[in-house]
């Protein structure tokens, strides 16, 4: 299907004003069949009567009329609209029967009870696969949904509560008009949902999931409601604009990837409903995703970018705001430290490799827009917005944001609109800041020159001097075996060398202390990380260590040693869990084969030390399951922890052990409706050709839920199995041209997770990069993953 270009979108926006959408959705065939039928009535004005345009319609068009006149068939996903009147009524009847692997709409069957669930997800331009629409962000209009569904089903949509009418074996759900929304912000979800509701601060909050996960949702409901209420309160205050609708729903659905910020009705993967009690990282991650999608209510729904070149205005801001709110309003006060080591590291990798691009860049068409949902747009963009907050000051930042939302509510904006509001609030020219940070790719580098009477901060940027920015340098002295910060300077950088008002001769200096900017640094003493006094200071030091590994300046052995030293000092639960994962990653993916067993042993010993205490026992045992050679001891330590027992079986399988009886026993005991996926992971890890082949077939056939793809492929690509995995390079190359089928999210997941991590060499990486004619989302993800694996290969060498 054709991809809408920016030029086409601009012409259509200049010509049209969309007054409203009235969309009838028929789901009555879904319990037994795949079809979704829709009738979309679009009322719109043409500013130039007599002009021609087109409406996006990628589903099968059964009938279409414009002002009562029959229209011809749709071609290449477009339905021509000739000879427009001043005021127009377009009626298009569509049918979509590819609800298993097609984009935009999905029919999922719960393996536990056979119940059917239906969800839609439309970013960036996938509403056109379900009903006809002008599928671009700057043609916003109210949407009114009428949904006919089986009588036992519940239907959710943007505007909250519906009026219902029973009719035979069906129920008709009539939803009120939404505010003016872009087509990609709309949603219809349906199925026999389990529902939990609560009234907080005048809001009617709802949670939904499939019935087989009711107990899990009930367990997590208090936490989800608490964070939801905290977020609504925080954002309403910071933006001086409360969320404008009384009802706010969150729907957890099967076979979904990630989460989507539909106005008033956020759709989640039900993989976020952890089958075992969430760990600190899992709980914090869920809170941040919840706050990320909530921030989109303002940044994306109420105010929407004009075109996809300002996607960062949506995603970067939501990622920034999630951490901002988590620290300011919830119990997850270490979120910025977790952001640094959990997400920002991926941005440093991407920004220093071939996949880098400016945060804001020209986007020719929507297909290209799909390729920038990446580490530059998300964690780098979020980090740059945190830098902007420091650059203009907290109060000016809040004032500017409040003014921005007040001025542009329910409209579309560009980057300059936001910059103008923040510049006015802060009383300073932001043009140089904007140009340096948003239109130039690459990472600044800072080091400290301590050779003179006082320290001098020395910086460089991608194109010469460093960008204009504010950062902190801390001076530390030894005290009882630890480092204590005795001086701190907030530095505004505009040139290569910046003298500091800090005492000479400190035991340690930390550049980018408090992590206010996005820059690569190198500490004078790499071994000091474990002695620094706060989670964020230790995280800054670990980032430098990890960056050195990525660039080849450091070794896997050095990284493991450094992480173990930090783990011996770290107390923040979410950070401990992340460092454990990083240490295991180094041992598995980055270490030379001759050192792999030794480094894995160091990580295992660290896990045992941590597991000896109660605070971090469970997360330490989870990591131990990746590196231990004593699986029996791990099983004994796991007790009745079903999740940990599955992890132990994956490891036993990887080591060549017989797991058949234990898998059968766990399948009988595990209440998770998706437990068979855990059994598939056990097969994936086995050093057995038939097992590998069956798991690969299931992945390629998309029988594995998207939420489990990463864990399944992590079990598949195991160190030491190179000979067994060698043939999967060719299989990956064969799949590349079709990996985007089904939409942006499958394209991201499969091109990333199926990329061979073992069994290939640098020649294969070059061959993968040379495959022609790939969808932009696949091409960009491939380039990024190939660069990371190339760095792994270099480190192993």
TrEMBL record:
GO function terms (MF aspect): alanyl aminopeptidase activity
Cofactor(s) named in the record: Zn(2+)
CDD domains, per the entry: M1_APN (cd09602)
EC number(s) per entry: 3.4.11.2
Alphabetical UniProt keywords: Aminopeptidase, Hydrolase, Metal-binding, Metalloprotease, Protease, Zinc
Catalysed reactions, as listed in the record: Release of an N-terminal amino acid, Xaa-|-Yaa- from a peptide, amide or arylamide. Xaa is preferably Ala, but may be most amino acids including Pro (slow action). When a terminal hydrophobic residue is followed by a prolyl residue, the two may be released as an intact Xaa-Pro dipeptide
Domain ERAP1-like C-terminal: 509-758
Domain Aminopeptidase N-like N-terminal, chain residue ranges per copy: 115-184
InterPro entries: Aminopeptidase_N-like_N, Aminopeptidase_N-like_N_sf, ERAP1-like_C_dom, Pept_M1_aminopeptidase, Peptidase_M1, Peptidase_M1_aminopeptidases, Peptidase_M1_dom, Peptidase_M4/M1_CTD_sf
Entry-linked PANTHER family: PROTEASE M1 ZINC METALLOPROTEASE, PUROMYCIN-SENSITIVE AMINOPEPTIDASE-RELATED
Residue span, Peptidase M1 membrane alanine aminopeptidase domain: 225-437
Protein family according to the UniProt entry: Belongs to the peptidase M1 family.
Species the sequence originates in: Kineosporia succinea
Protein name (record): Aminopeptidase N
Record's keyword annotation contains Oxidoreductase: no
Signal peptide: none
UniProt cross-references to Pfam families, sorted A to Z: ERAP1_C, Peptidase_M1, Peptidase_M1_N
